[in-house]
Amino acid sequence: MPRRIDSEPLAEPGAPTAAATLAPADAAAAGPAAQPGILLLDDDPFMLSVHSLMLRGMGLQRIVTALRGEDALQSLQSDLQAVDVIVCDLNMPGMDGIEFLQAVDASPYRGSVILLSGEGTRIMHTVQKLLGGGRLQILGALEKPARPAAMQALLERWKPVTAAHGQTPAPVYACEDIHAAVREQQWVLHYQPKVNLRSGALAGVEALVRWQHPLHGLVYPDRFIGLAEDCGAIDALTDWVLRESTRQLTRWQREGLPMPIAMAVNVSMENLRQPGFSRRLGALMREAGVPPQDMTLEITESRLMAPSPAPLESLVRLRLQRFGLSIDDFGTGHSSLAQLRDVPFTELKVDRGFVQGASGNPIIRPMLEASIGIAKRLGMQSVAEGVETAEDWQLLREIGCDLAQGYFIARPMASDRLAAWLDDWRGHSRRLLAPP
Ligand code: C2E
Ligand code: MG
Ligand code: MG
Description:
By secondary structure, the chain is an alpha/beta fold. It folds into 2 domains: 24-155, Rossmann fold, CATH 3.40.50; 175-433, Alpha-Beta Barrel (TIM Barrel), CATH 3.20.20. Helix content is 41%, strand content 18%. It is built from 18 helices and 14 strands. It has helices at 18-21, 24-29, 45-57, 69-78, 97-106, 121-132, 148-155, 162-165, 175-184, 225-230, 234-254, 269-273, 277-288, 310-320, 336-342, 364-377, 390-398, 418-433; strands at residues 38-41, 63-66, 85-89, 112-117, 137-143, 187-196, 202-213, 217-219, 262-267, 295-300, 324-330, 347-350, 381-384, 403-404. The strands form 2 sheets. The protein has an 8-stranded mixed barrel with strand order 6-7-9-10-11-12-13-14, surrounded by 4 helices. A 5-stranded parallel beta sheet has the order 2-1-3-4-5, with helices on both faces. Helix 11 (234-254) runs parallel beside helix 13 (277-288) and helix 13 (277-288) runs parallel beside helix 14. 36% of the residues are buried. One magnesium ion (MG) binds next to loops.
């Protein structure tokens, strides 16, 4: 891994990941005293004893077993503190695993769950999704009979939840807060590099806005972009982002960073609805002395679904001016292919949900390959976001994705960190790309 010189915290608020929230090191650091209590539920007595013996073999002592969902619920009710991880079979007569876990989700239990099934990966994937939206922490799913190493790996993801109990709820903001932030320009941009997967070269950066709140510190965009849209403040915010990011390009140029650095900014659907948006952006670029082809506008396609033609009109005008247009979070909306068909995008950014862990996942890997194949055939640049591991990186190289962005390369960072990161990355990427 490259030396960490970025300014954002390791577990970035608003962007939790399995790797960030379930780091095995955390569980290990908790020590043996923090061993999880296990509730093992399976209607097959043989499987129950196999798994129970296996868990004991791993040194776990607090194990409760049940053959029926009803009994497991009763155990939970009688001593909630005794259970930290539920290891649960899905296919059971009577109350099945899904019904059981829905009941658990509605109960005060706030621990973790490991799913067990002989039903194959596709079913488990769906069940994981189904339950992942609730309050239970799904550590993962295992085919029956579970292999000790796989069980161990999932258990290492478990983290005692005690710290969460003391947390104060995140503040909720109102329109007047956002308008005050606009007036006082309480924004700061962090930049995350995109690098070429073949050469390792820096291909550009994405500007990501943060709110430097006078009382709460750095607030991440998931907590205020929607509000800025609803409160009519998004135009002023986007203007600020565009001005600041183009100014930053000039500053980096003065400092001797290799130019041109392609800049990407996120543009909201609300921006695209404004009649004069494309003209204003053109004027802004001329003012800054940056050619539009050095600027890519990233658009989250789930927001592109509005029926009005205004966004399409803006997009086509922007493209005529030679702005790059990127379809962000590709694969997560309802009509990704329809958007690709209708909008002259130049870049396809595959959502991290199709990138992370793809090398070992027979469901998402074909989707990643297909997305990159579509980009190629349409003559678009492909970018994978959320690249967190060497395995993700290697797979993307193998399947011919153009650019990568993610914590494996760099976290978003303050502008003055880019030069040092680049120095560091040059050495690291040389080693990464060297033939074995
Ligand atoms: P996005 O455009 O898809 O940006 C990528 C997000 O993923 C960023 O979160 C980034 O910090 C995070 N990320 C990058 N690499 C990794 C990784 O390896 N793992 C994980 N788990 N996360 C990674 P951030 O900065 O919190 O931004 C969230 C979203 O807020 C952005 O998603 C974008 O849609 C929106 N946003 C950010 N800045 C602006 C802005 O200036 N204007 C508008 N309208 N939206 C913005
Ligand atoms: Mg983006
Ligand atoms: Mg994205």
